Amino acid sequence: MTRRQRVAENLNSALHHLLGAHPGTYLIGEDVADPYGGAFKVTRGLSDRFPDRVLSSPLSEGGIAGVGAGLALSGNRSVVEMMFSDFAALAFDQLLNFAAKSVSMYGRRVPMSMVVRCPTGGNRGYGPTHSQSLQKHFLGIPSLHLREVSPFHDNQRVLTAMLDREEPGVLFEDKVLYTRAMYQDGVVDDLFRYEVLADPSETARVFAPDCGPPDWIVLAPGGLTERAVTALRTLLLEEEITCELLVPSQLYPFDSKALLPVLSRADRICVLEDSTADGTWGELLAQQLHEQLWSRLARPVLPLSAEPSIVPTAAHLEHDVLLQPSTIHRAIMEATK
Amino acid sequence: MTRRQRVAENLNSALHHLLGAHPGTYLIGEDVADPYGGAFKVTRGLSDRFPDRVLSSPLSEGGIAGVGAGLALSGNRSVVEMMFSDFAALAFDQLLNFAAKSVSMYGRRVPMSMVVRCPTGGNRGYGPTHSQSLQKHFLGIPSLHLREVSPFHDNQRVLTAMLDREEPGVLFEDKVLYTRAMYQDGVVDDLFRYEVLADPSETARVFAPDCGPPDWIVLAPGGLTERAVTALRTLLLEEEITCELLVPSQLYPFDSKALLPVLSRADRICVLEDSTADGTWGELLAQQLHEQLWSRLARPVLPLSAEPSIVPTAAHLEHDVLLQPSTIHRAIMEATK
Amino acid sequence: MNVTSASPAVDHRPTGEPEAGVVARPLSRLSDADLGTLLMIRHFELAVLELFSQGRLHGTTHTCLGQEYIPVALYPLLDEGDYVFSNHRGHGHYLARFHDPHGLLAEIMGRAGAVCHGVGGSQHIYRDRYLSTGVQGQSLPVAVGVGLHLKRAEPGRIAVVHIGDGTWGEGAVYEALNMAQLWQVPVLVVVEHNGIAQSTPTERQMSGTVATRAAAFGVGHLRIDSVDVTDVRAALAPVVEQVRDRHRPYVVECVTHRVGPHSKGDDTRAAEVRERAARHDWYRRYRRDHPAQFAAADQAQAEAVAAVVREVGARPASRWEAR
Amino acid sequence: MNVTSASPAVDHRPTGEPEAGVVARPLSRLSDADLGTLLMIRHFELAVLELFSQGRLHGTTHTCLGQEYIPVALYPLLDEGDYVFSNHRGHGHYLARFHDPHGLLAEIMGRAGAVCHGVGGSQHIYRDRYLSTGVQGQSLPVAVGVGLHLKRAEPGRIAVVHIGDGTWGEGAVYEALNMAQLWQVPVLVVVEHNGIAQSTPTERQMSGTVATRAAAFGVGHLRIDSVDVTDVRAALAPVVEQVRDRHRPYVVECVTHRVGPHSKGDDTRAAEVRERAARHDWYRRYRRDHPAQFAAADQAQAEAVAAVVREVGARPASRWEAR
Ligand SMILES: Cc1ncc(C[n+]2csc(CCOP(=O)(O)OP(=O)(O)O)c2C)c(N)n1
Ligand SMILES: Cc1ncc(C[n+]2csc(CCOP(=O)(O)OP(=O)(O)O)c2C)c(N)n1
Ligand SMILES: [Mg+2]
Ligand SMILES: [Mg+2]
Q: Which of A49, B86, B159, D129 is the most exposed place for a label (fewest CB within 10 A)?
């Protein structure tokens, strides 16, 4: 069997494809050019192949978001890389007040094909300003869609869909995922299988075969896959609690209606996320699910997040703040009683 | 009876008090100096009295947020004005990644007495980049607290509490409120009275006397007071649906536990807010309330927001997008059935 | 004419009267077309303020009274393939480009036929390759992106960005200038330096000068302190050609004078400062220098704009179908 | 010594060898204290890289190899009432200020006695009036706020901000310089111009020069391209005095050379570029010029740092009580 592709490689070949397929595609970011190829090596080989469309920029996160918007406005497709998603805070105005708004504020639809790539999240010891999961702050902005990289979803398909949408989008990429392998052939590990649901959301569903309807459905963005699967395993083996995991590619807009057939197979639902609590994707999903499944749920949707804290640097401190398999295990176990 | 004080006057005298009472208090913002006294005239008379501590700044929203943080770091109290809250997007990095983080990321508590004032919201025809309600994007940032001006809460008390907290805070100020009068003596209008609850949240409770337990509790930030009261009135008079309105001063952190005695008097709860839906304060409250009142609620918490749209300029278009008394009336009426 | 390519701080303060000579110098005679556009903008802006004072307009607006000549001088040098990024003070830019007072007034009034269906209003307008928005500084990086596109896909075309002196407070301006010069993109920044930002005089919001700020990035700079359309256009022409042909950014600083309030009556400048601005007003000077041509054109435009106001004011509310 | 106050673009490209003379010039003899600090920082940084390569460190770090002399030259001119804002490449700044390798290494390793309990790590440190953070450019406006405070409440004290050449990409830098000059606050910006930002050479990320960028705001600028502590300190002294006494901002640009990788082994510069940086390294040059003093001090510091590594490496994990 061939070696499974790593997520960073998958992203890299997706970008190679996009830039090769469409001559109006640009990639802009700090240190993206060869031979460096980006802080996480995701852009390797691109500037050598497409020197006039792959530009290493100055340290100007707000500026390059604007440049990407200008390229989109003039009919191109732009991919803008934030070196760390934390710095997307510097581009917040351009994304909120220009790129997203331009789609609708001129009274007719202005197509804007633009993706901002955001290496995201902790568990790597980069410290408080380089480890955040800021997805929640970008939720609910009209015409701005959010996706998250997962080991189930091919990034060529993801990025193409984002650009085809002709609205700006943000792609969150968990930094730990970069070195992990993409799943293939429906196999997660010895215990778990996955399928990609046929509805348009293309949500991945992870399950232990032959277990019947699950006790819990766990919803999680791609970056939490590995920690979620670890918790699913221990819950199954140690507590005989069966959980199914749903990993969507698109975080926002999120329409849980299409998932209702799957979701209604359990009367308990948990949503995982890496950010701190409050104002989150988990609450957004919870509200939708409470409205749709009010009488069928045994208890309120259980949202699990990081501790209410900045992300500290030292490994032992960081571990305690971020959501870990053991925290998930414990919370689900307790909420099953 | 003396003329009731307008909200802008109340803010102005609060700022006069703060700058007079504490010699290390600064106010910085665009065009805040006399004779102009700020775009909404809230800072009138301050620079004449305190010329070295009230500074009209260049157009540099990110910069002045940083300046305010530097003043706070060196032991002062700073008030920074964004001319329109929409531009707080330009200060997002300074608030998220510096001001708020500094409180905890150095391993011990660093006091930061700093308030960012944000004239907020629509219904004034200022158009898509000058009318937003961006509260939700600032939710759930460790060490950053959010308040909203209301006609019930004296701003000297509010601002003093914010600065005494020694953590950065954002004060949202609905622009329509500026010209409205502060309520006093427990009277809202001919039909409604109010009291300020004795718990530490100092939430204002608006009620029609002698109506018994309400059908609904409506939670709303200060800027929605007037529209909420109008809806309460028509619901009562036209539909015989009794609602009580709760208007907290602090939006975040929000602990609904203290309000449970009041909240449990109805089995239906509605949360109003001016932003678009998704990732909102309403969802945050809903999640808390679902966890705390799960079995007592007749239906999921009803969150009402603006339409999922940018805020258009023309009065008739803007009216249709923003939350209006009629929308509130209709939604509550329908959800009562 | 008065064009210098390196300049000291522009003095807008009401000192002595060293500018008496400038103001005394006669303005050159313009074509009827140019004069007509100038006057159309003037009467349009006066009408907008009048509508506000009648309570017939919602929201806010920023008129370009005193600054009308800048787009009138510049735009004949552009073609429709060039992009223009306007700002909050953009009515003159729009009118000089499209000669469409009906569409703009409808936009401001929220009536049928509005160029953006009333959604954008005074400061958020998009039509063909013309775009304005209300967040100062934001459009400069966007123009750099557009400039990258033009240079590669439509060489010879340029992106023009109008900003005020106060907008140099925003970091986005510098991020953009740096990239524009590094990547050599055809972006022409037109600074309408009217000596004030809302209520704050330039010397209290800008250290250094526009010239030194451009020089910081090695970007070419030209200062124009004439209000004479002929002179301004002549000074702009070679700059526009350079940006076009050599794909490089340039900053043109037009020293100008805000004759009206910042938005709608919020003018707290001292009377002598306002009077000083008024003395520079091309309108007053042109009337003095070319009374006959002026009188006829002025009356014609006043009537034309009045007709626009009547016609548009009678239209039904705009509809926003694409929401 | 080589100090100029207006400068052309700094040439870091590997052209010819016009700098051979500079490198050949002997470095002045330093006090044992200064040399000791320099070498402590050098061995500390080497130890950090070694710990990383042994897998004993978590996260990332940026060493100041080659740039150690800047804080060593500057800090004797400061007193403890002055603020220092450091950046990602801050170990040398911290060590030159506090002579506390234990506290810093514990911070980087997350061990007991860490100056910020392991919460901040390599690039987020706060102690007394010293603060570093990981978002480039952010600390400049903060320093302006601190400068306002100092000017009013503690006149004579200053705020120093260390930034790299690449950080001039960030708009925050310009917003801050503008305010600093407008409000005349005592902020000294020390630019460690090492010719590169992560992997991007200066000429691909900065148009114009640091000198023209300071001049844009009327802010004083001094360029220092010596690595000799005595010379650098002598050049800095009058600038520090000016900032202190006249409450005004100043930009000092130290032309320097990054001898190591950006963070931990990510050096994609061509071999000859790296070798050129190494030729400028004060370490190599001082060893050549003062072999006896150097050898003793070098060995002493190598041993001292090794002892710190052993001692701190044996400590238990840090605890974060204040969360
Ligand atoms: C980012 C941002 N900050 C503040 C404002 C509010 N504002 C609108 S115009 C203006 C002054 C602009 O001054 P200048 O650039 O000189 O243009 P002028 O109004 O003089 O034409 C201000 C502060 C804004 N629109 N955008
Ligand atoms: C706002 C921001 N953008 C990007 C980064 C990632 N980053 C860290 S250091 C660096 C290069 C900085 O270059 P320079 O300012 O020249 O300092 P040097 O590393 O050369 O000392 C980059 C891009 C960051 N920390 N902050
Ligand atoms: Mg101006
Ligand atoms: Mg550098």
A: A49
pLDDT at C12 over 70: no
Question: Count of alpha carbons within 13 Å of A115, Cβ hemisphere only?
Answer: 27
* Chain A (4-63) residues lying within 8 Å, Cβ to Cβ, of chain D: 30-31, 33, 35-36, 39, 56-60, 62-63
Nearest ligand, CA C136: 1
For chain B, the first-to-last Cα distance in angstroms comes to 43
Q: Check D198 against A36: CB less than 8 A apart.
A: yes
Q: Which residue in C190, C144, C145, C132 sits closest to C163, CA to CA?
A: C190
Cα separation values, D112 from B89, C238, C304, D316, Å: 39, 67, 80, 6
Q: What subunits touch chain D, counting only 3 or more CB pairs under 8 A? A: A, B, C
Distance of residue C307 Cα from the nearest chain D Cα, in angstroms: 46
Cα dist from C272 to B283, C227, C306, D243, D270, whole Å: 55, 20, 31, 37, 63
Structure tokens at C256: 């100008």
Interface of D with A (CB under 8 A): 58-60, 109-110, 114, 117-124, 133-137, 166-171, 197-200, 204-206, 266, 268, 317-318, 320, 323
What percent of chain B is predicted at pLDDT more than 70? Answer: 99
Average pLDDT over residues A86-98: 98
Tokens of B218: 């409506």
Say if CB A91 and CB A62 are below 8 A apart: yes
Residues in chain B: 337
Whether D167 lines ligand 2, by a CB cut-off of 6 Å, is yes
Expressed in angstroms and rounded, the spacing between residue B149 Cα and the centre of ligand 1 is 25
CA dihedral C245, C250, C254, C258 (to 10 degrees): 120
**Of A51, A42, A44, nearest to A83 (Cα)?**
A42
Task: DSSP letter for D112, please.
Answer: T
CB B52, CB B26: distance < 8 Å: no
Q: DSSP label at B156?
A: H
Please list every residue in chain B whose beta carbon sits closer than 8 Å to the beta carbon of residue C120: 127-128, 312-313
pLDDT tens-place string over residues C259-318: 999 999 889 999 999 999 999 999 999 999 999 999 999 999 999 999 999 999 999 999
Q: How far is the CA of D188 from the centre of ligand 1 (A)?
A: 29
D25: alpha, beta or left? (left if phi > 0; alpha if psi -120 to 50): beta
Nearest CA to A225 out of A1, A5, A7, A3 is that of A7
Q: Is D275 exposed, middle or buried (0-12, 13-18, 19+ CB in 10 A)?
A: exposed
Tokens in use for D191? 């630019």
Please state, in angstroms and as integers, the Cα–Cα distance from residue C323 to each residue in A98, C104, C285, following that order. Answer: 17, 20, 46
Cα C193 to middle of ligand 3, angstroms: 5
Nearest in space to C123 (alpha carbons), one of A65, B313, D232, B186: B313
Helix (H, G, I), strand (E, B) or coil at D319: coil
Atom of ligand 1 nearest to the CA of C163: 15
Q: Specify the amino acid at residue A22.
A: H
Of B255, B289, B288, B249, give the one whose Cα is nearest residue B269.
B289
Name the pairing type of β-strands C126-127 and A113-120: unpaired
CA distance B184 to B10: 12
Distance, CA of B79 to CA of B75 (rounded, Å): 13
ipTM over 0.95: yes
To test the pocket of ligand 1, the residue of C63, C122, C198 to mutate (highest count of ligand atoms within 8 Å of its CB) is C198
Tokens describing residue C73 = 């001088």
Q: CB contact, 8 Å: D174 with chain C?
A: yes
Three-state secondary-structure class, residue A67: helix
The confidence band for C4, taking pLDDT boundaries of 50, 70 and 90, is very low
The amino acid occupying position A258 is A
Residue B148: strand pairing partners: B172
Whether the pLDDT of residue A85 is over 60: the answer is: yes
